[in-house]
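Running this now, will post back.
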Amino acid sequence: MSITVYHNPRCSKSRCALEYLNERKIVFTVVEYIKEPFTKDGLVTLLRQLSISPIELIRKNEPEFKEHYALYQISDEQAIEAMLKFPKLIERPIVVKDGKAIVARPTERIEELF
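Update: finished.
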């Protein structure tokens, strides 16, 4: 059983996910995706694991989205490129277990993986 948490330390919901797993003594790997950005293939794989479209993974209230993309209808490819260019646009935290992923908002959604 391998668990990975895509984490942004500046995000309180992301910190809550780590705390939730730690409290349950669940072993996991943390990837700070702002410091270790996704590759295009990695992001496409993650989207497949999440079973959502690229635009659903974007944080639309971030300044980078509002400034560069909000006025346009963007394609899946453009949404992926936006997240690669501005990793902070990626919704968080994302928890992956055994090839299935969820955006852990609220934190209790992590239970869906067990």
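Helices lie at 12-23, 40-50, 63-68, 76-85. More later if anyone needs it.
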